[in-house]
Every structure is written in structure tokens, then in C-alpha cells.
Records
---
Amino acid sequence: MLRTMDFPNETRWHIATRALSRMIIAAGREARERKEIPDAFYALGDEIGRIAGDHRMPRGNAGEIIQALGVISVMLFGPAFETPYIEGYSEEAVIRLTRCPLYSEEYREHADPETIRAACCAYLVTAIEALNPDFSLSVPFSRCAGEDFCEIIIERKPR
């Protein structure tokens, strides 16, 4: 009888993150075509908020939000989402990525760069909203748009 425990942890993680990534990209296609964020991203955002709350992750300022986002993204999408460059302060935080697991050869066969960008941005918008609705994000640079790196900026919304 085959059991889950017959698969190594790394294999199970790879299967789960690949499945979620494919779903995110499929929802990104819908986001790109409709020019609005599909409900699936809001449901994932709700779960991200629940994970942060259940584990008492601080998220009162931009630096804390970026740390929580980093930890949860690795939990959901696997170790390839580990971010080597994070700079976080109270009012603003920045992530710079030179590699992106969603913009990899494996996923580019399922979607074009604009679809992957739509998926990534929808994920980030709903995740930040769920972690702390007083903050917003911008993505001034992205590999999907042809730049050498992605830059994600989280900052407090104007009052």
C-alpha cells in the first residue's frame, strides 16, 4: 500500500508548491484577461492573514510585513522563494530578486511573461492587504517586464 510517508519531504514539498504555482499562474491568466484580481487570490490572501495571525507574526510596520510575507511565501511556494535581499524599515520595505521561481523555465511553458507578472502582482497585492491593509505595494521593476531583477516596495498608504 502506497502512503504519503513513502515520498521524501523534499518530493512532497516540490509537488505541493508546483501545484500551487500552476494554480496561481492560471488565476494570473484570468487577472490579465479581465484586468481585475480573481477571487482565488483573495481566498489565498485570507489564508495568508490566517497563517500570520495563527503564528503571531508581527506585521505592524513595513519591515515586519516584508518578513512575514517572505516566510509565508517560502511555506507556500518552497525554498526557491527564499529572498536573499530584504530591506525593511517602519514605513517602507524593499525586496529585490534576481531569480524568480514563477518566472522559471518550468512555468514559462505554461504562460507568457505578462501572465506571470499579473499572477505575481495579484498574489502580492492580496497578500499585503491581508497582512496589513494600511500598507500597499508597487513593483517598479520586474524580470517579467525584461529587467534584470524584480523590486517590490511595501509602504504605508497615505492617510
---
Amino acid sequence: MKKRPLTVSYIFFYLLLSEDTWRIAAGFVCAVFFGPLVTRDRDLSQSGEVMVWLMIMAVGWSVTAWPAKKITNALRRAVKRVSK
């Protein structure tokens, strides 16, 4: 089997068309948006705040499985259509 050369465009499209990339991004956005709302006015240590942010990120990652699949399928179809 012939290996593809590892180029910047190959890495870019691999990340763009990966479901996990979208799920990680959504989890990060959830943590940034909801993290301050959840930890405000609570007497949490710094490690407690980090743990809450990580839990929010994990929940955001798990909840976005269906939308990430839809996004990557749409992007794959668009790339195939353009490459014809």
C-alpha cells in the first residue's frame, strides 16, 4: 500500500474531517462558556475549578457526538463534490 506524504494540507484536511476534532472543539467551547458560570461565587480551590472545567469539557465532548458526525459527513460530501 502506498503511503501518502505528510504535508500541511493533508494534516489540515485530516483534522477538519475528523469527528473528534469537532467534539474536542465543542467541549472546549462549552467549558469556556459554562466554566465561569458554574464556578462563580463558589469557594473552590484552583484544583477544584480545574476539575469542574474538565468535567464540563467532557460533558460537552460527549453530548456533541451527533452534531460532529453530521458536520464531518457534510464536509466530506462537499470535498468529494469539489474534487470531481
---
Amino acid sequence: MTRHVYLTKAVVEAFIVEGNLNERQQYIMRTRAIGYTIAKQARELNLSVDQVNKEIAKLKRIYDATQIHSKILPPRKKNSAELNKIK
């Protein structure tokens, strides 16, 4: 299973700043947060779906490394059930 985090505006903007993302990575994060599909992102970036998936995998690694030192970024949850769990 993939690990999840809710992409709120505060989380996205904090990750962009703290993760020192480039323009392509910023675009991918912002458009994923508003609901673009990977195929739509690929079309707009003139990339293949595979290239966008590779960039997303890289963003996940950057997020995990950045989240350890961040006071704003929440840890990624193990699955969607854990993500939606009410405390």
C-alpha cells in the first residue's frame, strides 16, 4: 500500500518551501492538491505518464526526508483507513 497525507494548502506550501522544490515539482504538487490526474499533468507538462510517476516517487522521498525536520508537515499514514481515522 502507498502511504498517504492530506494535501491541504498549508501542507503543500510548507513542503514546497521546506523541500526546496523546482518549478516542475511545484506544479505537480499544486495540481495534485486540486485534483488533476496524472494523465492531465503529463499532457500539460508535455511528459509521459511514466515520467510524471517517477517525479511523484521522487517527491515522496523528498517529503519523507523533509517531514522529519518539519514542524508543519504531518507524517504520511500507512493506508487510507488510517488517514481517515478520527482521533
---
Amino acid sequence: MTTPASNVPPRRIPPWIKTLFMLALVGGMATVAWTQLPRTGISTDLSAIGQGRPALVLTRDSNYLGGAEVLEKLNTIQSQYAQRVQFRIAHLGEPVGRAFAETYQTQDGDLTLFDEDGQQLGGLVQPKSIERIEQLLSRLDQ
């Protein structure tokens, strides 16, 4: 004969399993949030262009990969050129970045070089190598 269901005590999850689950959940959420943070120390302050120091501006749209690839290249050479040129990002997700892109006809992954007075010296469309970026930066010496 079977025991009626009302006489069977409900199974309870031990408190330590609940705690472990909550820690794993919070840790997973923190990891996802951490991966979404920007991975660059490059400023988005475009008002610094033409303020006495040359600037190299990357036009960036986080919905595309081209700019991310160029950003990796910039991060590689930034310390080498930091004394000579300021690096900036024009985010297409922000009004200032969209205005920059419209003014200089740039899109995700494009670089634009300015002299210390804010005059455009040149640009590159999604450069595929660090050497191409260095060639652009060599215009500062001319």
C-alpha cells in the first residue's frame, strides 16, 4: 500500500547549497558586468583637440568589430607615443562622437590625426597594421 502524499515531508534544500548557488549567481553576474566594461584608458574628451597637443582620434561604434581591432592596435602603441600625441575616441553612440564622424566623414575603426592647432593632418580607414598607424603618426614630424 502506498503512503498518501500528505504524509511525506517536503524535501528541503540544505542552506549551504542555497548559499553556494547565490554566490555562484552573483559571481556570474559580476563576471558578465566586468566583461562589458570598456577596456581602454583612452579618453573620449574631444574638446582637447586643437588645445596645443596633437591628437589621434579613433571613431568607434561598439556594435561593430573594426573599431575594436584598431583599438587593440592603439593600446599596443599608446605608451610609445603618449608623450607626443594624445589618443582620443569618438564614440558613435554619443552625440559628440556622431558630430565628429559627420564633420570628418569617418566611421567605425577610422583614425583621424590632428596637429596641435586642431588642423587635420590625415586619416586612415580601418588600418590593418600597427605600421600603417605609425606611418600616419610620422606626419607629426613633417
